[in-house]
Amino acid sequence: MSGEPTKPKSATGVSPAQKAVSDDPGALPETRSSASEEIAAFVAKARATSPYAAGARARLVFALDATMSRQPTWDMACALQADMFREAAALGSLDIRLVYYRGLNECRATGWIADSAHLAKLMGGIACQGGNTQIGKVLSEARREAIASGVRAVVFVGDAMEEALDDLCVKAGELGLLKVPVFMFQEGQDSVAEQAFRQIARLTGGAWCRFDPGAAAQLRELLRAAAAYAAGGREALLRLSKTASGAARLLGQMK
Q1: 110 Cβ contact list (under 8 Å, min separation 6)
Q2: Which DSSP category does 35 fall into?
Q3: Looking at per-residue confidence, does 108 or 4 come out higher?
Q4: Cα–Cα separations (whole angstroms), residue 43 to 50, 55, 95, 96, 111
Q5: If DSSP codes are grouped into helix, strand and coil, which group holds residue 100?
Q6: How far, in Å, CA of 251 to CA of 237, rounded?
Q7: Residue 91 has what pLDDT?
Q8: Taken in order 15, 16, 21, 27, is the CA torsion positive or negative?
Q9: Helix (H, G, I), strand (E, B), or coil: what is residue 90?
Q10: CA gyration radius for the chain?
Q11: Cα–Cα distance measured from residue 173 to residue 145, given in angstroms and rounded to the nearest whole number
Q12: pLDDT, tens only, 85-137
């Protein structure tokens, strides 16, 4: 990514709280290999503090495909996002950074949000628009935040992939080096998306799971499980897996 995200112009109809991941239609976020000094600094920071200490604030990137076909799922995710905060509350707390793409090369990210009502209000003001997928930008934004401020997990919800898989795998590999698992939640049966989502999950040490179109209960379980991991690590996911199928599905794939 070139430089810091900038505030969108008011003409876009997007909240000023949201930042553009890239304003250049022809540009993607930086794709250079992870610099050794960045990795070293991140690892040193992670070792200096217990990653899952009681009361520590967890950070999770919540990424959504907001292209036109996704409006029903966007509305569903808006209604379910509070479950992530509630699940994490039992273990500590959770900050969420919403990242979404839509339209012609529009990919935006909010600041860190600690309140489900605030996130719901923000999401409620966003309308899906037709366009191609921009998963590469999502992964680059997650990598930048992982180095800058620490990210424990990434959740992505989508149903398609229209990018070069090799490029996505490079970005996923960088997140894997940073020990940031990506949970790829796929709606529907698209085989191209499945292949890509599985690879991204594998390379980051995360998990791929499919849910049926419009299946709120299935998506709720998956989001709860991801939040539990972000807030409490593998042990929290293991405890949740004893009573929740979504957690068991994630745990079964994670390295």
Answers
A1: 15, 17, 18, 19, 97, 98, 99, 119, 122
A2: P
A3: 108
A4: 12, 21, 21, 22, 23
A5: strand
A6: 7
A7: 87
A8: positive
A9: coil
A10: 17
A11: 15
A12: 999 998 888 999 999 999 999 999 999 999 999 999 999 999 999 999 999 99
Pairing of strands 207-211, 182-187: parallel
Beta pairing partners, 6: 20
3-state helix, strand, coil in the chain (%, to 5): 45, 20, 35
Tokens for 45, please give them.
């920071």
Q: Kindly report the CATH number that applies to the domain delimited by 14-22+53-251.
A: 3.40.50.410
Question: Do β-strands 106-110 and 93-102 pair in parallel, antiparallel, or remain unpaired?
Answer: antiparallel
What SS3 class is residue 140?
helix
Query: Are the beta carbons of 161 and 67 closer than 8 angstroms?
Result: no
Residue with tokens 């112009």: 9
**pTM over the 0.85 mark:** no
The token pair at 28 is 């993607």
Domain boundaries, the chain: 14-22+53-251
Summarised one tens digit per residue, pLDDT across range 24-76 is 433 344 444 555 666 566 555 544 444 445 556 899 999 999 998 889 999 99
- Taking the alpha carbons of 140, 59, 205, 33 in that order, is the dihedral positive or negative? positive
| Residue 8 confidence (pLDDT) above 50 | no
